[in-house]
Amino acid sequence: MLKLYESTPGSPVMSLRTGGQVATIVSAIINPHNLFIEGWYVQDSISKHQLILLTQDIRDILPQGFAVNDHEVLSEPDELVRHKEILELDFTLNGLKVTSQSGKSYGKINDFAFETESFYIKKLYASQPLVRSFNSGSMSIDRTQIIEVTNRRVVIEEPIEKSRAQATSPSIAS
After folding, report:
1. Which residue in 123, 89, 92, 124 sits closest to 106, CA to CA?
2. Residue 106 and residue 109: Cα distance in Å, rounded?
3. Which residue in 31, 47, 161 sits closest to 83, CA to CA?
4. Of the candidates 4, 40, 51, 159, which lies 20 to 30 Å from 21 by C-alpha distance?
């Protein structure tokens, strides 16, 4: 099942052992090389410090929040040596420009959807500047259309224009 990212920050992290809330989701830790959510920055309910919840420690995503075994799965950033490189990148998708291979601009990413089982980002949603949004609105980009992700932009395949697609489609004569 796909879940929109914008609905995730502020979600509670619930302990299956105690049944109570142990943290609150702050933001995602995204690997830009494969668009995998490695983990989540969370605010600890006890100490109010920012800790990390690794994706592998999430048991389930429920309407009530993220389910984990217990508070002990939350880690200090310094403890996660294997994830140090990704943590240092501090990569975020929201706000990145979306351009085609030819350089045509399609706006900026304002949200994305991730698969709740695999935690791979499957869809990106880009919004156009206000003036251009009257004509075309927002754009949905599938993972398969992405060619390159940098810290400044997302490069996608050239989209097929509606007018061009209609002009090249065969017409049926009666």
Report:
1. 124
2. 9
3. 31
4. 4
Q: Cβ distance 125 to 145 under 8 Å?
A: no
Distance CA 29, CA 106 (A): 25
Please say if the pLDDT value at position 168 is more than 60.
no
pLDDT at residue 167, as a whole number: 44
Alpha helices in the chain (DSSP H): 84-89, 130-136, 162-168
pLDDT in tens, 51-92: 999 999 999 999 889 999 999 999 999 999 999 999 999 999
- How distant, in Å, are the alpha carbons of 67, 92, 126, 149, 150 from that of 129? 38, 20, 10, 21, 21
At 128, the pLDDT band (50, 70, 90 cuts) reads confident
Query: What is the reported pTM?
Result: 0.84
Question: Which contiguous run of DSSP H or E holds residue 60?
Answer: strand 58-62
With tokens 């830009």, the residue in question is 32
